[in-house]
């Protein structure tokens, strides 16, 4: 069977393409911007890519068009598909019907930490020789790829052997222009993590209640013999579960559930209902990562992995690219790349680093770039979330609101720039040996990481 994927270079659709190829489908695809790293990853898999959405692509004559959620009415190829009444399907529905149907799906949902927690969970199962398949919205360093069908999906003397387990990052963003349900409605997991819940995606949700409604619909699809692993500290999640829940719930972050207690030297005591489960020793920073770890340990236990084995696995966990990833150390100045783009994530990222480095200076470099940030939904919370930094540089290029006013309480700590290179120059001049620079954006930030490191190399000897 031949599928042609519209919007193939997005993380989700690119991962789907890899899974389809591994499953034996002929896969081609197109996107407005065909560029690395996704393009190289796909070409290496033998997937033909076409730049743009020309109507002529219907002459490829696939059996089915798989439509990404960036595609809207007016797209020339989509219009041709509709005019000719050709078969099409959304990415999440295709995944549900062709990849997930007979799997034990472990889904990780929530506003923050989905990618990290999914990566932890996949790694725990891999460490335990359960060889899961996965589709994750980032690249876990332990695997070096964002998606695979199964770790044991190779032919062997006793035939084709494939793991029943599949870990998926379960996003509440909408499915497609013709299906406004959240993606996660399609996944039908047996094990579900509900990490946290805040208002986000202001481009498609009018308010928090609308997001909660989608989570409620999700909970309605979960089986009675499954498990929900839920953050017990999140009121917004408790409200969702109070609307109706037909699945057993294990909580984390609370006394009668899973708990993490920070000891000395980054050691964490893990307990369940007051009973000691083991000591986690790792390099990850911040309380949010302790919560992510608890969620992953609890979910893996439901799949049959004892907590002590899961804790051992996490001691070898290498995190995800762009999650406090050290991009370089130049003359004793450390430059980090982080995906934080929401006040809660910004605050916890800075607090985790502060906990590790003590009194050393933190320079926060922020690009408010997500749709919710661009619209100014979080402007009133932004200044407070940046308090943990000693100096703040904000790139205002995308903001549709008054950033200066929003950050006015930070006074002389905050510096705003509408152009990138003047900001890079200013950061370079302000930086001292021993400083830690945290670059925060959910996009490419116009290559600031390399530009800043080059500038620091020239000016600091």
Can you characterise this structure?
The protein has helices at residues 11-22, 38-44, 76-83, 91-100, 114-127, 208-220, 235-242, 287-302, 307-314, 343-357, 371-374, 379-385, 403-406, 420-430, 448-459, and strands spanning 2-6, 26-31, 48-51, 64-67, 88-90, 104-109, 133-135, 147-148, 155-156, 159-160, 165-169, 174-176, 179-182, 191-194, 227-231, 249-252, 258-262, 267-272, 275-281, 325-330, 333-338, 362-366, 391-395, 414-417, 436-440. It has a seven-stranded mixed sheet with strand order 8-7-11-6-14-15-16, sandwiched between helices. A six-stranded mixed sheet has the order 20-21-25-22-23-24, sandwiched between helices. A five-stranded parallel sheet has the order 3-2-1-4-5. 32% of the residues lie in helices and 24% in strands. The radius of gyration is 22 Å and the shape is globular. It is of the alpha/beta class and 461 residues long. The termini are far apart. The protein has three domains: 2-92, Rossmann fold (3-Layer(aba) Sandwich); 102-314, UDP-N-acetylmuramoyl-L-alanine:D-glutamate ligase, CATH 3.40.1190.10; 325-459, Mur ligase, C-terminal domain (Protein-Tyrosine Phosphatase, Chain A).
